[in-house]
Amino acid sequence: MATAWNQCLHWNSHDPDTGNESVPKKKHGYFLHITDMHVDKNYIQGGTKKSACHRNPKEERRYKAGRLGAPFEKCDAPVALAQETLDWISREWKDKLDFVIWTGDNARHDWDRKEHRKRNQILELNKLVTNMMIDTFGDLPIIPTLGNNDVYPHNVVVDRDPLLEYYHHLWLRWIPADQRQEFLRGGYFATDIPALKLRVVSLNTMYFFKKNKAVKNCRKKGPAKDHLEWFEKQLQNARNTGMRVIVMGHVPASPRDYRKTCFKGYMDLAAEYGDVIVSHHYGHLNMDHYLLYDTTDSFSLYSQPYTYLDEDEDEDQDEPTFSISRNIAKYVDWLHDLYSSLDVDQDVLEDPPPEVKSPLVAIQVSPSVIPKYYPAVRIYQYSVPEQDEKQGDGFELMNYTQYYANITHWEIEHPEEPLEYQVEYTTQDDYDLPDLSASSLFKMAKYMVEGGNDLWSAYTRNMFLRSQNDTIPGDLDDDAY
């Protein structure tokens, strides 16, 4: 089997170091979350929307795909956008970061009906992006995860999937030696960063994903159930050893996208180990927002008011994003209803008794590099634990800065200059959040839906990277899709 996979790899100068490089040399107090690059080597500047920006128009058209991408359209990211994004991070942040979480979907979608992607293309695109990450960050710890567009067939991963051997080799430098057998079995692993008293758990959300029809639910014997059991062991071990945990994956936990038993299992663990888990980080949805759940409210959690979100999706649509003109209002209304439905005792949040666990679980969803709206990356700031601090007094998320790039304006105003990202907002300055705990996010959510209209407007504007202020090229007919 290894020989067959090696034929796909063609390893070059980026052969992996088999050591565990998960220890930052210095604690700076920042980490990067980057997600959903969706790099497309077939992207061409000037390509048509109908061809997924793969072919030039037969006649002159008003709209032309840009050098750095085609915001709002079904086109993936040109290699230039991914490279210039990483170049900007290298210039501005590389020497200030302690580690990087990288939540998948590096390969292009299958949007071009005349040029369907193949397995080897998906693997080669992941190899390309992995090498770009290595070139950018060097020995800095990186924690990757699989996206639903990084596997073949689309959305499908099975137990001991041969595909995992490829990614095991590709990411070997980042997978600790004692986690490699688990990764080969299920595509998940955990990395400890001892200097920060931190464990980063990289989940394989394909086992929880409804669209992975090859896997049974989380109650039946199989890889999904095994994954939840492994997840619990990681959390219990972290509690026993006095470590905090960051949980990361590709598809965010929701009753819309997870099998019911998997969503319940995830929520149960998130609530039970709320004293251990610092935060949950995901991508996949392209939109900048957070999901917030009350794990004691079983009716709201496990009833299904979410199905309407699928109504306008095409049968072959690749993932649950929503066209600008038809579905944004629905998703925003659903999110507003989700926040409104939360009813948690403020006294429990302010001063919980030792025996009472917080029922809140906050799932942070970062926006993507692919310009579904505009490309974006996120820098988190955290409190740096001291050596004598006990569990619960150390690693805490305090703030993040959301960066984005209006590539449409940039290409017009700076056609010959390397791309620069700009600050969109920070949670401390723009949302007045003291930290990023579930309790603080809950208070913000309740304020927004109970009369804080200005904050809600700012939040939803940032949700789509301020693209709603711009004129959106094209419409829903002709060659828009």
TrEMBL record:
Q: Which UniProt keywords apply?
A: Glycoprotein, Hydrolase, Secreted
Could you tell me which residue ranges the Calcineurin-like phosphoesterase domain spans?
31-277
Primary localization class, coarse: secreted
- Cite the GO molecular-function annotations of the record: endopolyphosphatase activity; exopolyphosphatase activity; phosphoric diester hydrolase activity
Kindly give the SUPFAM superfamilies that the UniProt entry links to this protein: Metallo-dependent phosphatases (SSF56300)
The record places domain Sphingomyelin phosphodiesterase C-terminal at 372-472
Q: Which Pfam families match?
A: ASMase_C (PF19272), Metallophos (PF00149)
User: Which domain of life does the UniProt lineage start with?
Assistant: Eukaryota
Q: Which cellular compartments is it found in? A: Secreted
Q: Name one GO cellular component term.
A: extracellular space
Q: Name one GO biological process term.
A: polyphosphate catabolic process
Family the entry assigns:
Belongs to the acid sphingomyelinase family.
Q: What's the protein called, per UniProt?
A: Calcineurin-like phosphoesterase domain-containing protein
Q: Where is the organism placed in the taxonomic lineage, from the top?
A: Eukaryota, Fungi, Fungi incertae sedis, Mucoromycota, Mucoromycotina
